[in-house]
Design a protein that fits this description.
An eight-stranded mixed β-sheet has the order 6-7-8-3-9-10-12-11, sandwiched between helices. It has a four-stranded antiparallel β-sheet with strand order 2-1-4-5, covered by helices on one side. It is globular and about 65 Å long. It starts with 10 loop residues before the first strand and ends in a 5-residue tail after the last strand. Helix content is about 30%, strand content about 20%. By secondary structure, it is α/β, with parallel strands linked by helices. Helix 4 runs parallel beside helix 6, helix 5 packs across helix 6 and helix 6 packs parallel to helix 7. The protein has one domain: Rossmann fold (3-Layer(aba) Sandwich), CATH 3.40.50. The longest helix is centred in the middle third of the chain and has 18 residues. It contains ten helices and twelve strands. The structure holds adenosine-5'-diphosphate, iron/sulfur cluster (SF4) and magnesium ion. The site of magnesium ion has 2 residues, from helix 1. The site of adenosine-5'-diphosphate has 12 residues, from strand 2 and helix 1.
C-alpha cells in the first residue's frame, strides 16, 4: 500500500502551506515589497497510529514549521490537517484542549521545555495541572512516564532542579513530560541534537522502545540520518518547503532516488557498501524560499537539471508500491 495514501491515518496534512511575510526593513519604506517566505508549500503527508516517521532535510527547509502546523501551534495559510479524520482548524474549547493532550511537542532544547526555577517533580506534573487532569492520578502518571523513559522513580528527583541533571537525563525528562498526558501523537523536533554522541544512543534507544511499547505515532524532525535510520520506519525528505521524496527508511537511505536525497546522504559518513548509487555532488547552499518558485525548487543546485526543470514543478508520484519522488528524471 502507498504509505502516503492510507485509508484512515491518525494524522494527515492536505495541501498544507505556510507563508511568512518578510519583516519590513528600512528599504521597504521606498516601496520595494519583499516577497513572502514559502516555509511550507503544498505538503501532503500522513502518519498512521503507532507509526514513527522521519522528516529529514537541511536547516531552513521548513521542518519545524511543518511540525508546528501539525500540532496547531500555528495556523496554515492554505490547506488543513486532519487528526482522527477531523480538521484541526475547527477545534476550539474542550475539543482543542483534548487535542493538546493527544498531540504533543517534544522540544529540541530541554532548557526551552523546562523552567529552570521549577523542580523536576513540578515540571513533570505541570502538563497534568494545566490540562485539568484529576490530581489523584498525577503521581501514578508521572511514575509511569518515568519508567517508560527508563528513569528512576520520582523520589530520586526530589528537590532537584533541571541544572542538576545531565543532558541525557534532561532529554528523557522532556520526553516523560510529554508522555504524562498519554498522547497518541508526538512531534520530536531535533530531539537529540543538543546531546553528546555518548549519551545520544541511550536516548535514541528510549525513543525506539517508547515507539514499540506505547504504539505512539511520532514525527521525528531531524537533519540527522542516524536518528531516522534508528527510530523511523518511514522517512520524508523535505526541500524548500516541499516533500521531495518519501519511502521506507531503510530503502530510502540505501537507494535514494531524488538528487537532493542522494546528495544529503552522501554528505554524511555512512558506510559506502550501504549505498547502491554513486555519490552526487550538489552546489551551493539551500536556495531562498522567498517568492513562489517556478519549476523545481532544487534546480539551481541540481547537477542533473534539464530545461524542463525550470518550467515545470515536479509532483510527488509513486515509484513502486511504497515510494514517492518529485523529480522529472527519476
Ligand atoms: N516566524 C517566522 N517568520 C518568518 N519566517 C519564518 C518564521 N519561521 C520560519 N521562517 C522561515 O521559514 C523557513 C523554514 O523555517 P523552519 O521551518 O524553521 O525550517 P527548519 O526547521 O527545516 O530549519 C526559513 O526560511 C525560515 O527563515
Ligand atoms: S526535477 Fe530536475 S532539477 Fe529537480 S531534482 Fe529532478 S532533475 Fe533536478
Ligand atoms: Mg527546525
Amino acid at each position: 500500500m502507498d504509505a502516503g495514501m492510507s485509508a484512515s491515518p491518525l494524522i494527515e496534512a492536505r495541501g498544507l502551506s505556510k507563508r511568512f511575510a518578510t519583516p519590513a526593513r528600512l528599504s521597504d519604506i521606498f516601496g520595494v515589497k519583499r516577497p513572502d517566505v514559502f516555509a511550507v508549500n503544498k505538503v501532503n503527508l500522513s502518519i498512521e497510529a503507532g507509526e514513527s516517521v522521519g522528516l529529514l532535510g537541511e536547516s531552513g527547509c521548513g521542518k519545524t514549521t511543518t511540525g508546528r502546523l501539525l500540532l496547531k501551534l500555528i495556523d496554515p495559510s492554505e490547506g488543513d490537517v486532519l487528526f482522527d479524520g477531523a480538521p484541526i482548524s475547527d477545534l476550539a474549547g474542550d475539543a482543542l484542549i483534548a487535542f493538546r493532550q493527544r498531540a504533543q511537542l517534544v522540544f529540541q532544547n530541554p532548557f526551552d521545555a523546562l523552567n529552570p526555577r521549577f523542580t523536576i517533580e513540578r515540571a513533570l506534573a505541570e502538563p497534568l495541572v494545566n490540562t485539568g487532569v484529576d490530581s489523584a492520578t498525577h503521581r501514578d502518571r508521572v511514575e509511569k512516564a518515568l519508567a517508560q523513559v527508563k528513569l528512576p522513580p520520582l523520589a530520586r528527583f526530589e528537590g532537584l532542579f533541571p541544572h542538576q541533571l545531565s543532558g541525557g537525563q534532561l532529554q528523557r525528562i522532556v520526553l516523560a513530560r510529554a508522555l504524562v498526558l498519554e498522547p497518541a501523537f508526538i512531534v520530536a523536533d531535533e530531539p537529540v541534537s543538543m546531546l553528546d554522541v555518548s549519551v545520544r544512543a541511550g536516548v535514541l534507544n528510549v525513543m525506539r522502545e517508547v515507539r514499540s511499547s506505547l504504539g505512539l505515532a511520532a514525527l521525528y524532525i531531524s537533519h540527522d540520518l542516524a536518528l531516522v535510520r534508528y527510530v523511523c520506519s518511514r522517512t520524508l525528505v523535505m526541500y524548500l518547503g516541499r516533500i521531495v521524496e518519501e519511502g521506507p527508511t531503510a530503502e530510502l537511505l540505501k537507494a535514494p532516488l531524488h538528487p537532493y536525497t542522494r546528495a544529503l546522504i552522501q554528505a554524511v559518513p555512512v558506510p559506502r557498501v550501504d549505498q547502491q548509487r554513486a555519490p552526487l555532488p550538489i552546489m551551493g547552499n539551500v536556495s531562498d524560499a522567498r517568492g513562489r518558485p517556478k519549476g523545481c525548487g532544487f534546480r539551481e543546485r541540481c547537477p542533473l537539471a534539464l530545461a524542463r526543470c525550470a518550467e515545470e514543478e515536479p509532483q510527488l508520484r509513486p515509484i513502486g508500491a511504497e515510494r514517492r519522488v518529485a523529480c522529472h528524471i527519476v
